[in-house]
User: Which sequence fits this backbone?
């Protein structure tokens, strides 16, 4: 009888619980440890499947007899438990590495600082519309491990973070997409942007000649690191500036898709998602669809019919001539820049939260030209206030979504827009960006 290794799962959120369920379902002895409190729905799943767990601490002798660790992406590599595991030569992997062992599906994997969720959703919509047996997971919907346990898909579109990529060994994306690299999560990378960029480039790890890499030629950081990387696979560029390459580009108001000499076009007005950033997202999705052999008309129909995810430039309401926009998913500087740039009315900007080493100077020009008031929504707004003091005429603070919405409402006039685009993580006051966005929408709807 084969004795399977004992697996320790660190963290019992979506990815950790999914990994634990998959491991238990494959016959492993599994123990789950979470230094915080486990949400009841995840706890119920562990109990139902007879998986042992602890919460509120990592117990003594936790590594005893452990042969492999699946680490949730929210746990830094720098914690003492991980350092000790590595000292003992216990492999530490991510949930996507573990899940990939149990599926033969083709994986279309999307990473980048911004646009991951939208592009992942677009590609999944495209595959579903084409009638393919396709799933979606990673940081969108269910975890990859949970999906692998419960389904038998031929294709997976996965949104993947740098933290998950840090924990892969043999995981391979048949189609890898790198949308952009802008400063984000630098607190996890010793405030070293080059380390963060290197993590993003792990999206192409293990790719072979027959695989594909789609990347943005207009993104400086991507271009720099791609230029230093030996590419064995086919690579396809998306660009609004350059033309004539394999991939996609813009000619006037027309998108041109060129997959190995086979071309098709559609106008930007036909795209379901408007805005400059969404042109890149649509290009990446269209190229991926073409590489998967989807019909040109099917690709164009999907790009024209997709409905965007919630919490990303999501229209909420117009109250007394004041428009309210929920962009809670904008958790970094670049995402907030896109949101601010996209508005053409005076802005009451709601921002703040858990600062990840933000460089607010990158927002100064767009803020000067568009923002008339700032509502800081966070426990510690010091850096945000210091960055825009004397630049934004009115700055105030709030400790809840309801308070922020009410203050923004009274600061706004007919014809203004109240924009929640935090540029920060949500964990100081909210469970996650969805919770922050939902509380914002609820507060708007009670005005």
Assistant:
């Amino acid at each position: 009888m084969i004795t399977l290794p004992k697996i320790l799962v660190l963290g019992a959120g979506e990815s950790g619980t999914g990994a634990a369920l998959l491991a238990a379902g494959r016959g492993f002895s599994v123990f789950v440890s979470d230094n915080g409190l486990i949400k009841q729905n995840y706890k119920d799943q562990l109990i139902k499947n007879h998986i042992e767990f602890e919460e509120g601490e990592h117990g003594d002798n936790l590594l005893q007899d452990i042969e492999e660790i699946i680490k949730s992406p929210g746990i830094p590599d720098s914690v003492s438990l991980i350092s000790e595991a590595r000292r003992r030569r216990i492999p530490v992997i991510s949930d996507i590495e573990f899940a990939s062992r149990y599926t033969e599906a083709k994986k279309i994997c999307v990473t980048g600082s911004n646009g991951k969720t939208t592009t992942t959703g677009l590609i999944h919509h495209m595959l579903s519309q084409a009638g393919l047996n396709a799933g979606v997971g990673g940081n969108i919907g269910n975890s990859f491990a949970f999906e692998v346990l419960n389904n038998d898909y031929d294709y997976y579109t996965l949104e993947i973070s740098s933290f998950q990529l840090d924990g892969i060994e043999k995981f391979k994306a048949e189609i890898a997409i790198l949308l952009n690299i802008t400063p984000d999560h630098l607190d996890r990378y010793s405030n070293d942007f080059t380390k963060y960029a290197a993590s993003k480039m792990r999206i192409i790890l293990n790719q072979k000649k027959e695989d594909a890499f789609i990347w943005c030629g207009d993104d400086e950081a991507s271009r720099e690191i791609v230029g230093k990387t030996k590419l064995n696979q086919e690579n396809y560029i998306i660009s609004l500036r350059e033309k004539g390459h394999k991939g996609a580009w813009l000619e006037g108001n027309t998108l041109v898709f060129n997959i190995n000499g086979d071309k098709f076009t559609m106008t930007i007005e036909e795209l379901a998602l408007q805005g400059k950033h969404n042109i890149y997202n649509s290009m990446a999705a269209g190229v991926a669809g073409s590489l998967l052999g989807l019909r040109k008309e099917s690709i164009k129909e999907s790009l024209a019919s997709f409905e965007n995810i919630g919490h990303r430039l999501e229209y909420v309401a117009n109250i007394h001539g004041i428009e309210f926009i929920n962009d809670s998913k904008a958790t970094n500087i670049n995402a907030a820049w896109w949101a601010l740039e996209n508005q053409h009315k005076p802005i009451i900007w709601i921002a703040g939260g858990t600062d990840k080493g933000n460089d607010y100077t990158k927002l100064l020009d767009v803020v000067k030209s568009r923002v008339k008031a700032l509502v800081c929504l966070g426990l510690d707004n010091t850096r945000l206030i210091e960055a825009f003091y004397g630049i934004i005429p009115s700055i105030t603070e709030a400790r809840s979504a309801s308070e922020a919405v009410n203050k923004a409402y009274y600061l706004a006039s007919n014809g203004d827009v109240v924009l929640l685009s935090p540029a920060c993580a949500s964990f100081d006051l909210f469970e996650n960006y969805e919770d922050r966005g939902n509380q914002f929408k609820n507060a708007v709807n009670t005005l």
User: Anything to note?
Assistant: The mean pLDDT is 92.
